[in-house]
Design goal:
By secondary structure, this protein is an all-alpha fold. The protein has two domains: 2-333, no CATH class; 360-562, Phosphate transport system protein phou homolog 2, domain 2 (Methane Monooxygenase Hydroxylase, Chain G, domain 1), CATH 1.20.58.220. It contains 22 helices and no strands. Helix 7 (130-159) runs parallel beside helix 10 (199-211), helix 12 packs across helix 14 (290-319) and helix 13 (268-279) packs across helix 14. The chain is elongated, with a radius of gyration of 30 Å.
Length: 568
């Protein structure tokens, strides 16, 4: 018995691995297109609903669709109001998995077909073209999924659960508890889904138990309802450390499914009987012959899949008209942060990471935000330079110092995230992109160091009681203007904006180098003419040199992003 249970766990692992591999392969193949679809087809609630449905059905992962949707909400490309229909559609799209397993896994014997799929998947993985490799990964995952499903079913048959007295007595006893029995299996389905973190895996077990005649249809459907709630609990736990918008999207998912479970429980038996009638399954019919048993074992899987689809469809038809009230309710439950500046990571979260390919998109958004914060930090420097009030000076210097510490933290957090992403399966282009991102965050952090060094130079000058001459201020302003233009161009390049120009960055770098050389010579002449003290000359040139170093770091960021080396 113990060996049989271990076999069942192994079969379940095969099924889950196959689902994950198949989903990753499809996302590698169509990830960019899916993001484009999500970004352009969600202006109306119907478009968002259909987009969420078809994208989820395509990649076989509602989590992947949710992650992409949340990233668009965080980026400001979608509002929460636009994201809710996509999440609703993802719930409909994920029901396709149950139908695939019911039709191909139970009506046909797939054990003879999976091996050619394995061969095809391996053959395609040796092709150099990345799109073909990704399709090969999908085929390989497809084969693994059905191998796991087939062996899981065969193992259940070998265990002869239909004649196991302990199991039969448990189901017979609990089936007489009425609504309490339904609530018990609903809770059990939710707990199992949270433990396994895969509603598809628990759905497969439910299909097998019901098709074997062990689990009555009503308890099986209660398990399916529990799976719907369990999968949302997992995403909400994962979103605890994420941004406000990510937690709101996860809560929308949970409220949607909890509402559905509540109204279905009120009309449970009539609703289940209606679904069974549509798929041609009589829950009260007791099959006698082998032919009737075989027919019932297939039809009961249709009843479970049909209920899963009907549950989500009816739920959508009820709630699609109340998106605005849902948004208001969610925003009241999860309020915006009251503190003015949120310095933590905003777009990425280990718990919400779906696949390596899609996670690079999350990391890119985080790097853009990192660059925006560094530009904001730099623009505090000329403001600090002109301050004369002690209290205001100390406050702004402390703020720049805080930004420098935060930039160190962001570099570490984004770097650790990218290292985790690198452990997943990545296409060669994505591997190159990941290495470029690691270089980018290192150089952006160096820009933050340069800004802090400028602030320290200004602080030393302020503490010594002397001030720059008007001519020195004018020359510093000229250098600061060059640096500001470089940082603006760098941000456009990091954002992949069409108006971005790496050549403009290189031109500004030449101008900074020439300007610094000229100012160095002029500083020697001014010192000889005793226009200011030697100490003020040192403070002045330290500031100019730090500006020149900042320009070098900006060029390094652009080189890392474009993966090209510029000769300076």
């Amino acid at each position: 018995m113990i060996l049989a249970i271990l076999k069942m766990i192994g079969c379940l692992a095969l099924l889950m691995f196959g689902m994950k591999t198949m989903s990753e392969g499809l996302q590698k193949l169509t990830g960019g297109h899916l993001r484009a679809v999500l970004g352009t087809m969600t202006k109306h609630r119907l478009g968002g609903l259909l987009t969420g449905t078809f994208v989820t059905a395509a990649v076989q992962s509602s989590t992947a669709t949710t992650v992409m949707t949340v990233s668009f909400v965080n980026a400001g490309l979608l509002t929460l109001k636009q994201a809710i229909p996509v999440i609703m559609g993802a719930n409909i799209g994920t029901t396709a998995t149950a139908w695939i397993m019911s039709i191909f896994g139970f009506q046909f014997n797939m054990s003879s077909f999976v091996w050619p799929f394995f061969g095809l998947g391996i053959a395609l993985s040796y092709v150099r073209k990345n799109s073909v490799k990704s399709f090969g990964e999908f085929v390989f995952g497809f084969a693994f999924m059905f191998l796991g499903l087939t062996t899981l079913r065969e193992n259940a048959v070998a265990m002869d659960l239909a004649h196991n007295e302990a199991i039969i007595n448990f189901f017979a006893t609990t089936s007489g508890w009425g609504m309490l029995s339904t609530l018990l299996f609903l809770l059990l389905g939710g707990i199992l889904t949270m433990c396994v973190q895969s509603s598809a895996a628990i759905m497969a077990i439910t299909l097998i138990l019901c098709s074997s005649g062990v689990l009555p249809i009503y308890q099986g459907i209660a398990l399916v309802m529990g799976e719907n709630i369990g999968t949302t609990v997992t995403s909400n736990l994962a979103a605890l450390s994420a941004s406000t918008q990510a937690r709101r999207a996860a809560l929308a998912h949970m409220l949607f499914n909890v509402f559905g479970v509540v109204w279905v429980l009120i009309i449970f038996n009539p609703f289940v009987n209606m679904v069974c009638h549509f798929v041609g399954f009589d829950p009260n019919f007791v099959p006698q012959t082998q032919e009737e048993i075989a027919h019932a074992s297939v039809r009961v899987t249709y009843a479970l899949s049909g209920f899963h689809t009907a549950f989500n469809l009816c739920n959508v038809l009820l709630l699609i008209w109340f998106i605005k009230p849902m948004e208001k309710l969610i925003c009241k439950i999860i309020k915006d942060k009251e503190d003015g500046e949120d310095f933590g990571i905003k777009f990425i979260s280990g718990g919400l990471m779906s696949t390596a390919e899609l996670s690079l998109y999350e990391a890119r958004k985080e790097i853009i935000l990192f660059a925006e914060r560094i530009l904001k930090m730099f623009r505090m420097v000329p403001e600090l330079l002109r301050l004369k009030n002690d209290e205001e000076f100390a406050k702004l210097f402390a703020r720049i110092e805080k930004y420098e510490g935060i930039s160190d933290k962001l570099e570490m957090e984004i770097g650790e995230y990218l290292n985790k992403v690198s452990e997943g399966r990545l296409s060669p282009e994505s591997k190159t992109k990941l290495q470029c991102m690691l270089k980018e965050i290192s150089e952006i952090e160096s820009i933050g160091d340069a800004c802090y060094n400028m602030a320290r130079v200004i602080n030393r000058r302020y503490r010594c009681g002397e001030d720059y001459t008007e001519e020195q201020y004018r020359r510093i302003d000229g250098m600061v203007k060059f640096c500001d233009q470089m940082l603006e161009q760098m941000l456009l390049i990091v954002e992949n904006k069409p108006e971005a120009s790496p050549k403009a960055v290189l031109t500004l770098e030449y101008e900074i180098n020439d300007y610094r050389k000229m100012l160095k010579e002029m500083n020697v002449n001014d010192l000889n003419a005793q226009r200011y003290s030697y100490q003020m000359g040192v403070h002045y040139m330290d500031l100019i040199n730090d500006c020149e170093k900042l320009g070098d770091y900006v060029v390094n960021v652009v080189e890392a992003h474009t993966n090209k080396k510029f000769s300076t």
